[in-house]
Amino acid sequence: MSLLRREEWQHFVRDVDWAFSYVDDEAVYPEWHSGTGKVPREAWLKWEEDYKVTYPEYVATQREKESAAYAVKAALQRSSSFDTLDEGWKSSTKMHFGGIALVEYAAMLGELKMARFGLNGAWRNMATFGQLDELRHSQITTFFGHEFVGKDPQYDWTQKTFHTNCWVPISLRNLFDGMMIAPNVVDLAIELPFTFETGFTNLQFVALSADALQSGDVNFANMISSIQTDEARHSQQGGPTLEILVEHDPVRAQWVIEKSFWGSARAFAALTGPAMDYYTPLEHRKQSYREFMEEWIIDQYIRTIQDYGLKKPWFWDEFMRGLDTWHHALHMGLWFWRPTIWWRPKAGVSKDEREWLREKYPNWEGVYGDKWDVIIDNINANNVEATLPETLPWLCNMCHLPACNPTQSRDGSWRVRDWSLKYDGKTHHFCTNACRQIWWKDRDNVNHETVIDRFLAGQIQPMDVSGILGYMGLTPDVMGDDPDYAAWTKDYVGRSATGLALAPAESEES
Amino acid sequence: MTDNSTAERDLQDQPPQLVPLNAIFATDFVQILVPVTTANTVREVAAAVAHHVEGKRVRALPHEKVVFHRGRRLPPEMTVAEAGIEPHDHVRVEYDLPKGTK
């Protein structure tokens, strides 16, 4: 007997559903998990994925992908390619391993939630494949990072990051708990597969893969390309869900997209922006972060949401202006507070690198050059101590990233503004107008305490830099430092410098 | 008058309280946490904020520093308590540049 062809049987099984006789539909698909809201229950019958897949096909394809990724890894393990990689590039990978490995695990929980509470059988099937994907991503990322632990203890943060109270994973936990763990499945499908995976992971997985290949890191490029092929499939859960939600409740659809777009944009500015514009060696950069954002997010994603009949988010102008500032300021923050991170951030502001930054970002010199010059002059005056932190940056109550986004005044100068509001007897501070507005609207949802909140509540002891580093889990063998100060300061040796902080010895003399 | 002077006396009798501030120094790139007390003067607040930034990320200038709080320029001798600066408030510290200086 020959097997039936897929087309002959799949339509019978792909959206199998049950008519419950002993319990109500509400008991099986409770509103707080399934989240149908204003959408009539029967409207979900129309849910249909564009790209259909069966379990045998899924297993065969995944097996092939896994074999290929691990074969390349095994071959490269015997070579010395890792040892020749630039420290800046290695930092990009440490950031990625630590920042992503367990987020993939959280995404698996999100997929499982859709696999259980999704309002159509086809959706639940797709989510079942999606959870298998995310489990694979968590495993492959952890395994690939683990290989390097023996060579460099910072890679231990591949697995450790999300088990610490470092401010970076707290910020990411806040974002992803709001996107993957807390929401009902309708919101989840729009936040995770539609906004984050369709819109943003392209940036990390496609663009960073190109930089990886340029930098000679074939293993990393191979790993993230393998992951991205899964994303392309399971991210399609977003489209059909959005289509149905827009038809019945466009206001909710617009809000869910806006909130998750903004949160994703802030996180990518912190993680992908510095990796592309500072850590990747100059000769290996394909495009600037802004150029990647324009190509992959602005054109593509906006066209997509407009196709669904939605509007550009209300914060669009603020977001676009931020493409020239957010990641530069966050890079400076990551560098200045380098003992609080698990990679070695290279400053990347030699004369050649600055010329590239000026070409890509015409305002860069006027907004950031003066501050880097003071830092450079301190290092060249052997006063590295003046470039190390003695307090915390103020962290935004919404995105948990440092409040460091300047805007231009009418007189042309660039200043960081205070975006605050008083609520429940406390003053909250935000990095941007949109973070403030989203927090206000979403204030009863997940809101982790920032490290500033924890510090001021006395949760961090002793209340000094050593207490903060201990609380964050940073030990001397892993805390970040610049990998090569001379690489970006030697161009400026010998120039006259005024207005510097005195080195401790000098201040004792004076 | 009696009420005011009683309130002032009460203020002076209290031990200094910690006032953590959200602060920014001139053209610096980030807001920072700076702890002061209710007994600190505005001049001391300016110095406490400047300590983390001046000559470290913003080049030091030979000018006095001034503190702005809720849009108001505060007199240097006033204390934090007298100025009504509360925990978590935002303050901006600027150089008092002579007119015409950029």
TrEMBL record, chain A:
Pfam families: Phenol_Hydrox (PF02332). Coiled coil: none annotated. Its EC number is 1.14.13.227. It is an enzyme of class 1 (oxidoreductase). Gene3D superfamilies: Ribonucleotide Reductase, subunit A. GO terms for molecular function: monooxygenase activity. It catalyses: propane + NADH + O2 + H(+) = propan-2-ol + NAD(+) + H2O. This is propane 2-monooxygenase. Keywords: Monooxygenase, Oxidoreductase. The keyword DNA-binding does not apply.
UniProtKB/TrEMBL annotation, chain B:
Gene3D superfamilies: TmoB-like (3.10.20.270). SUPFAM superfamilies: TmoB-like. This is Toluene-4-monooxygenase system B family protein. It comes from Streptomyces humicola.
